[in-house]
Amino acid sequence: MASGSDGNFGSDRQVVTRFAPSPTGFLHIGGARTALFNWLFAKHHGGKALLRIEDTDRKRSTQDAIDAILDGLSWLGLEYDADPIYQSQRADRHREVALKLLEAGHAYKCFATPEELEQMRAEQRANKQPMRYDGRWRDRDPSEAPGGTPFTVRLKTATEGETVIEDAVQGRVAVKNAEIDDYILLRADGTPTYMLAVVVDDIDMGCTHIIRGDDHLNNAFRQLPIIHAMQGIEDGWEQPVYAHVPLIHGNDGAKLSKRHGATGVEAYRDELGILPEAMCNYLLRLGWGHGDQEEFSREEAIAAFDLAGVGKSPSRFDMKKLLNMNGNYIREADDVRLATLAAQEMGGKVDETLLAEAMPVLKTRARDIKELAEGAAFLFTQRPLELTEKAAGLLGDDARAMLAKISSRLRGISDWTTDALEASLKAYAEELGLGLGKLAQPLRAALTGTTTSPGIFDVLVLLGKEESLARIDDQANG
């Protein structure tokens, strides 16, 4: 791939991206957007999108969290080009790389005890110095340590000059090497650290582009030295293109968190009734732009997505915009599909055929599946209807008398269609010298038990003649 807006990647290797969540909780909004960006970038270039579960924190990683992440990705329609890789199953390979670095002199054994390291940090705090390992075992002979003393393996990082990353989103970023300490690759118990495991897995998976949140930018400067050191030891250690995407903030400008509302995609699906295509489109536009276009089909998103369109500033999550976009997608969605989703929201024991018939009038008003289900509830309410306080307020004595006359008038209509019903009620309103709304308001209360519903003639048709007249009579005689 030629260099350019998607980063300087000059080899002919196939583009490979990866999404690498830690299974310590749900698939949060930021992670979902990272997954989407990686997936779209790979598909845009005819490459591969891979999934890695970073489950090395065995105390916090759970199967429930793994299942939730996989379920969330599946709901978003992100299918990967290989089975997930589980980082915990690759510890032997991680150790192998650490030992190769040790043997080649790019790493060393550190015998500093936890007590010594804590004293070092205390002195640094007291002297207001940067908190970093001071290299006390960097140039010492391991034979100076008493036999059997536990040790960690630390990377021997450069102490002079700087490391530069030409980030595909952030641009040129430089860090002085003196600011990067000799961090641990293998703990005293022989287990690899996250910093080592990530780099080894990225290389072994053939990742050409690392697209992730910009909270990982500092990690890139700690991970690159491993890649550079291994280039003289093993083949295949090509430096990937980095693209660090700004984080998502809430409307108040603070980093998105639980206090801003739901943060896991399953909550947007299960609790708020968001459609996956709406969520994907919203996440796509959250920090990425392509001219003035707001809505994208999956095919359009694949064709258009590049890293040049990703902004450098944090984006703000706006629930109102998400709901508006979701409403657009609901209006475009298949009626049978929406009926199934609404039926699930209503507990499943409703007539989905009737729901599907009602969708053309129901979905014009709804911004989410919950609102769709609430709007459809009148279809399945058992007589006598329980009226809301506002609806009951519309049914005084005069209104009930008018309902009785409406019932008598509608009873003679054989062609129970919106046109015929509208013609009859408009004629009656003119006879009374009233606007049609004066008839429709109490009629809506009688038919639905509420003051909001689809158009009153649609309600009459959907309920059918027998049910409509029975509901009207219940209130007229009440």
TrEMBL record:
The keyword Cell division does not apply. It is found in: Cytoplasm. One of its GO terms (molecular function) is tRNA binding. Residues 341-474 form the Aminoacyl-tRNA synthetase class I anticodon-binding domain. Keywords: Aminoacyl-tRNA synthetase, ATP-binding, Cytoplasm, Ligase, Nucleotide-binding, Protein biosynthesis. A motif ('HIGH' region) lies at residues 21-31. It catalyses: tRNA(Glu) + L-glutamate + ATP = L-glutamyl-tRNA(Glu) + AMP + diphosphate. It is an enzyme of class 6 (ligase). It comes from the Bacteria. A motif ('KMSKS' region) lies at residues 255-259. Residues 125-150 are annotated as: Disordered. Residues 125-143 have a biased composition (Basic and acidic residues). Catalyzes the attachment of glutamate to tRNA(Glu) in a two-step reaction: glutamate is first activated by ATP to form Glu-AMP and then transferred to the acceptor end of tRNA(Glu). Monomer. Belongs to the class-I aminoacyl-tRNA synthetase family. Glutamate--tRNA ligase type 1 subfamily. This is Glutamate--tRNA ligase. It comes from Paraurantiacibacter namhicola.
